[in-house]
Amino acid sequence: MDKPIAIITGASTGIGQSLSVKLSEQYLVYLISRNKDNLNKTKELINAQNNDCKIIVSDISRNQSINDIYSQIEDKEQIELLINNAGIGVFKSITDTNIEDWDNTINTNLRGSFLMTKMIIDDLKSKKNGKIVFISSVAGLQPYKNSTAYVASKYGLRGFASALREELREFNIKVMTIFPGAVNTPIWDNKGMDELRKDMIATDDLTETIFHAINAPNNCVTEEMTIRRTSGDF
Ligand code: NAP
Predict the structure, then answer these.
(1) What are the pLDDT digits (tens) for 22-72?
(2) Pocket of ligand 1 (CB under 6 A)
(3) Cβ(81)–Cβ(4) below 8 Å
(4) How far is ligand 1, taken at its centre, from the CA of residue 17, in Å?
(5) Residue tagged active-site, from 27, 30, 150, 155
């Protein structure tokens, strides 16, 4: 039987890459991000495990991208899982946060997740089956200074996912929100965090934990899950 389809945004690096490689064991994964070379690196990792994937180069913050992505998914009836993972981090004081920073952050982290969810929702509803995962952050649960745009996007994501969950219960669609602490990924490049990175959560450890949540059996769903370092936040 054909594998069901998982669509993963932000699959080119970091958490999205790690999740894509793991989920390719179980799904035909569609990898989405803007950088084709990096998507191809994820594809190589997946192919090295004798699994398969498709690449779609796209910017999820743009309306038109969503139509382009949807038209490239071949067997839409097979769509079972969406991981809304793509995100950017702007860590600046409110004085230094300009309008472009604000718009880019909200449009990628929050609006992009809304657009991707809209894209597939009717397919999942008509099947009365499916899973949607939002990669939020501990910054979606508590505030941090010098992060207004990021924190606003992640609090917004929690609100969106929570309302969506209520709406989709009757359609047997599982909605999960994951709140990770600091994870060692390229999001921290050039952010003055180099000394701490080795002590952050490793992407594959995070993936392993999320994988179990996604595979909760039968009528169980992990609605919200916070994943921190055992020793707590920095
Ligand atoms: P990352 O390595 O920088 O990954 C971000 C991914 O998002 C990349 O694949 C990037 O690919 C993609 N992306 C960014 N803007 C996009 C757009 N407009 N359209 C399509 N793809 C886009 O960082 P990460 O840490 O793995 O972040 C993944 C998610 O985890 C984010 O939502 C982040 O907020 C969340 N998170 C991270 C941490 C952490 O400490 N690392 C903690 C909690 C939550 P392209 O550049 O190729 O587009």
Answers:
(1) 999 999 999 999 999 999 999 999 999 999 999 999 999 999 999 999 999
(2) 9-16, 33-35, 38, 59-61, 85-89, 108-109, 112, 135, 137, 180, 182-183, 185-187
(3) yes
(4) 10
(5) 150
